[in-house]
């Protein structure tokens, strides 16, 4: 599924159980897998495969930072 955040960052999103699909997609577009990390209300993308505190996987182009800050969730 394609995700667009503020129109500035767009990427394909995969559920954790679809890691093989994410790896194949990354290879096809010469991209890199990032883990969408979540702790509390904080969100960020981290360049590596991980399963701890992960919402899902994102495939982005090569050459981006190892850490990409995302908007934090709004508390209730």
Rounded radius of gyration (Å)? 12 Å
Structural class: mainly beta
Taken in chain order, the helices and strands follow as EEHEEEE
- Which bin fits the share of residues in helices? 10-25%
Largest sheet: 6 strands, antiparallel
What is the rounded distance between the termini?
A: 27 Å
Shape: globular
Please tally the β strands and state the result: 6
How many helical stretches?
1
* Low-confidence spans: none
> How much beta, percentage-wise?
over 45%
Itemize the secondary structure elements and their pairings.
Blueprint: E1 2-5, E2 9-14, H1 19-29, E3 31-39, E4 42-46, E5 54-61, E6 67-69
Antiparallel strand pairs: 1-2, 2-5, 3-4, 3-5, 4-6
Summarize the structure in words.
The chain is mainly beta and 76 residues long. It is 14% helix and 46% strand. The chain has one helix and six strands. Strands 1-2-5-3-4-6 form a six-stranded antiparallel sheet, with helices on one face. The chain starts with a strand and ends in a 7-residue tail after the last strand. The model has no long low-confidence stretch (mean pLDDT 89).
